[in-house]
């Protein structure tokens, strides 16, 4: 009984505590360098997300300091970086416009409670039931909305209050396009060019930091007549994030509940997606429920210090890992770095031009939009395209909460349709028995360097994690992995994406993936998808016998599958 209790308690032990075993000065040095780097990267992003969300730039920094520290200290990932992200910009701006800052604080805390409940009850796994077309749809929509909110500051337009609705906003911006301020446009364009071109010189210092420093110095020295943080917000207060109990209004709880659910859902999706990316880059395996519980606590505490909703940030997490981070200490250093800037350099922020922050958000919108995935979606079935388009269009034209709800409803109907489509009734004939012989495994000789996996049942959103769980340790697999699809009854866009990721993981490990025996619906979807680029048409076989013959040919041609094949397949994907 004590062993069970000890094991149960251990699963709630933050990774920051686990990683202290054997922690050394060398590890701390690496974490310190990574934390300082990602802290500098987070500075312009935090201010830009704060402004775009309809609050002050310091609100974004306060969020990165408070929530960023708590997510790293209490979370279930070694290298996850938390803070404000683009996913929340649109919904936060809408809440602020309608309910003010007290309403936003209430939404943040309610979302935090929901996240905490999801983590403590194990409901974090429910996030996997969001199909890929829905995820891509609202990501595309959010990215477009973020970009549209930055046009005014990028061009320096002089306009009345900009509407929150996309169509009305674009109409107003076009109406006042003649008011473009050329000095502002010059600063914005130069900042954008710096962000995009600087990585060609070096990737050690992010282009956004260089753009921020250069534009701030130029504006301050030459007194350029462009709008800055100082001219619009009066600068950033120097000192610790102030603690204050928000002025809640009980009558706002029910009207804001849908927004709180949306924020919690987005936080869960983005944080777990970021943690999965971190796992792949750092050879780790995060604790999903502990991560969501930490996200919940961070979102409950953040509004008490003037912060906005926070979640795991994919780009900052990737920067953290590339900078050499080994433990959650780097994430805590990132938060302390931003706090040090608040304490020491806050007065200098008044010279930061809003045009530069608009350029930063343009790049963020492009990177988060996953625009390349649209081509993949358009090669899928008309039903998948309809789910994606409905989610995308409603995110842009209506409301994110409505978009996700409608997208999920359409996806659920599609799921039922696909399951129903797998039911067949047919007579067993001699031809049927003869055709099935090539799929039977019992009479086949399987070489020692070949591993055969099978998928049994529908491989749709909600089930694709089972492939990742079954293949955690690729060291146990042979040089050639045959994925037998004879009993996979249905496939969707999320399943295709999971197969692409599995193929890429195998190639990275110097192994080869063959698919065989796909039935009619999965076969048609595979043929029209981007999966062929990851696997190769020649490695999709009609049955397991053909797959074994292909594996033997590969062994004979290359003397063992390894670097040559992996390099060939990697070049196809690129």
Q: What global shape is seen?
A: globular
- Summed up, the domain count is 3
- Number-wise, the strands total 6
What kind of sheet is the major sheet? 4 strands, parallel
Note down, in words, how this protein is organized:
The protein folds into three domains: 9-240 and 250-368, no CATH class; 378-421; 430-573, STAS domain (Transcription Regulator spoIIAA, 2-Layer Sandwich). 64% of the residues lie in helices and 4% in strands. It contains 25 helices and six strands. The chain has helices at 2-10, 15-18, 25-52, 57-74, 89-121, 132-155, 166-175, 182-201, 207-222, 229-233, 253-282, 288-301, 314-322, 329-344, 354-368, 372-378, 382-397, 400-421, 430-437, 465-470, 493-508, 520-527, 531-535, 544-558, 563-573, and strands at 82-83, 311-312, 450-454, 480-484, 512-516, 540-541. The protein has a four-stranded parallel beta sheet with strand order 3-4-5-6. The protein has a two-stranded antiparallel sheet with strand order 1-2.
């Amino acid at each position: 009984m004590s062993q069970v209790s000890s094991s149960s308690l251990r699963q709630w032990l933050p990774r920051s505590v686990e990683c202290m075993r054997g922690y050394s000065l060398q590890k701390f040095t690496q974490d310190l360098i990574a934390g300082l780097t990602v802290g500098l990267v987070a500075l312009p992003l935090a201010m830009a997300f704060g402004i775009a969300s309809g609050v002050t730039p310091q609100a974004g920094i306060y969020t990165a300091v408070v929530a960023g520290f708590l997510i790293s200290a209490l979370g279930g990932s070694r290298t996850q970086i938390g803070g404000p992200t683009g996913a929340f910009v649109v919904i936060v701006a809408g809440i602020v416009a309608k309910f003010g800052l007290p309403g936003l604080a209430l939404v943040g805390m309610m979302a935090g409670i929901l996240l905490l409940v999801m983590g403590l009850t194990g409901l974090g796994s429910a996030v996997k039931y969001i199909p890929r077309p829905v995820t891509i749809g609202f990501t595309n929509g959010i990215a477009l909305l973020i970009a549209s909110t930055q046009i005014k500051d990028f061009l320096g337009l002089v306009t009345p209050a900009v509407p929150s609705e996309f169509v009305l906003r674009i109409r107003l911006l076009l109406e006042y396009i003649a008011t473009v301020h050329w000095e502002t446009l010059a600063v914005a364009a130069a900042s954008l060019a710096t962000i995009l071109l600087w990585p060609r010189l070096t990737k050690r210092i992010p282009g956004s930091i260089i753009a921020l420093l250069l534009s701030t110095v130029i504006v301050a020295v030459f007194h350029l007549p462009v709008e800055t943080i100082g001219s619009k917000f009066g600068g950033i207060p120097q000192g610790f994030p102030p603690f204050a109990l928000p002025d809640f209004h009980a009558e706002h709880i029910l009207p804001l509940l849908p927004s709180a659910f949306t924020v919690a859902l987005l936080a869960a999706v983005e944080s777990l997606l970021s943690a999965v990316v971190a796992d792949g880059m750092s050879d780790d395996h995060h604790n999903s429920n502990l991560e969501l519980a930490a996200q919940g606590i961070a979102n409950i505490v953040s509004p008490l210090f003037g912060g906005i909703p926070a979640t795991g940030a994919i780009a900052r997490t990737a920067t953290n890992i590339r900078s050499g981070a080994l433990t959650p200490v780097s994430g805590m250093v990132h938060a302390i770095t931003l706090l040090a800037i608040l304490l020491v350099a806050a007065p200098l922020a008044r010279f930061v031009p809003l045009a530069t922050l608009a350029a930063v958000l343009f790049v963020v919108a492009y990177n988060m939009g996953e625009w390349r995935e649209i081509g993949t979606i358009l090669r899928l079935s008309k039903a998948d395209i309809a789910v994606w388009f409905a989610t995308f269009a409603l995110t842009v034209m209506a409301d994110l909460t409505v978009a996700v709800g409608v997208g999920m409803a359409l996806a659920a109907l599609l799921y039922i349709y696909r399951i129903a489509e797998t039911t067949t009734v047919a007579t067993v004939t001699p031809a049927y028995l003869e055709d099935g012989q090539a799929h039977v495994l019992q009479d086949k000789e399987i070489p020692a360097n070949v591993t055969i996996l099978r998928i049994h049942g529908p491989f749709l959103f909600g089930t694709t994690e089972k492939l990742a769980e079954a293949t955690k340790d690729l060291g146990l697999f042979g040089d050639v992995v045959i994925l037998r699809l004879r009993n996979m009854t249905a496939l969707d866009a999320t399943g295709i994406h999971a197969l692409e990721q599995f193929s890429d993981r195998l190639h990275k490990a110097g192994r080869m993936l063959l698919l065989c025996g796909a039935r009619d619906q999965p076969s048609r979807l595979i043929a029209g998808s981007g999966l062929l680029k990851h696997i190769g048409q020649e490695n999709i076989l009609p049955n397991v016998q053909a797959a074994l013959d292909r594996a033997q040919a590969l062994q004979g041609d290359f003397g063992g599958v390894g670097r040559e094949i992996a390099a060939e397949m990697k070049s196809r994907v690129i």
